[in-house]
Amino acid sequence: MNPNPANDQADLHLLQQGEDLALNRLMTRWERPLFAFAWRYLQNTADAHDLVAETFVRLYQQRLRLRADTNLPAWLFTTLGNLCHNHHRWRRRHPAVSLEQVGDGPGAVNGHTVELAAAGAAPDAALDHSEALAALAAAINRLPHDLKTTVLLHHYEQLSYREIGEVTGCSARGVETRLYRARQQLRRDLAPQLNETTAGA
Questions:
Q1: Of the N and C termini of the chain, which has fewer Cβ atoms inside 10 Å?
Q2: For the stretch 75-105, what's the b/e string if a residue is b when 16 or more beta carbons lie within 10 angstroms of its beta carbon?
Q3: How far is CA 158 from CA 41, 53, 163, in A?
Q4: pLDDT of residue 128
Q5: What is the pLDDT of the chain when averaged over all its residues?
Q6: Span 58-100, pLDDT tens digits
Q7: If DSSP states are collapsed to H, E and C, what string results for the chain?
Q8: Are 71 and 166 in contact (CB under 8 A)?
C-alpha cells in the first residue's frame, strides 16, 4: 500500500500541529490510488474526484481526533469506501444516464477507450475483448459492498490480505473468504457470456 508509512505518520503529526502543507503532501501521495479505487467502484470520473476530495476534507476535519499511530492509508480507503457505498446506493435510487457510460465513440466502452489487445488485432476480437471487460466491470459493480471493496483493493490496488483487512475491518482469513465468495458470484454472473464465447469459438 505505502512503502514508507513513517512519512504518513510524520505528515499526520504535522497536520495535527497546524502545518496545513502536510495535507498537500498527503494528497499528492494518496490522491491517485484513491481516485483509481473510487473510479472503479463508481465508474464515473466526476463522482470519483468529488468523493476523493470529500475524503481529504474529512481527514482535515477529523485530524485532531486521529491517534498518532493511525494507519492513515487504511483510514483513507475506509472513509472513501464508505462514501462510495453511500453514493452508489443513492445513485441506484436516483438513476441517471452518465455521458461516460454512453461512451465517446466507437472505441469506447463505459467512457473508456479500448486499446486493441495487440497491434493488428482483428476488429471482432477487439470488440469481443471490450465486451468481456464491460461485462466483468458490470458484474463487479453488482457485488455487495464488502465483496466489491475487497475485490477492488486486491485485484486493482494489489493490497495484501492484511492491508485489506485493515481497511475492511476483518481478518486476513475473512478477506480470503470474501474473495472466494466474490469469485464464485462473478463466475455465476458471467457464466452465460462465457458459455456463448465457448460456443462461438
A1: C
A2: bbbbbbbebbbebbeeeeeeeeebebeebee
A3: 15, 23, 10
A4: 63
A5: 81
A6: 999 999 999 988 999 999 999 999 999 999 887 767 665 444 4
A7: CCCCHHHHHHHHHHHHCCCCHHHHHHHHHHHHHHHHHHHHHHCCHHHHHHHHHHHHHHHHHHHHHCCCCCCHHHHHHHHHHHHHHHHHHHHHHCCCCCHHHHCCCCCEECCEECCCCCCCCCHHHHHHHHHHHHHHHHHHHCCCHHHHHHHHHHHHCCCCHHHHHHHHCCCHHHHHHHHHHHHHHHHHHHHHHHHHHHHHC
A8: yes
1-94 CATH, one of 3.40.50.720, 1.20.1070.10, 1.10.287.1490, 1.10.1740.10: 1.10.1740.10
Rounded Cα distance between 85 and 63, Å, is: 23
* Residues in the chain where the model's pLDDT stays below 70: 1-3, 92, 94-129, 194-201
pLDDT at residue 66 in the model: 94
Which residue in 140, 39, 135, 134 sits closest to 87, CA to CA?
39
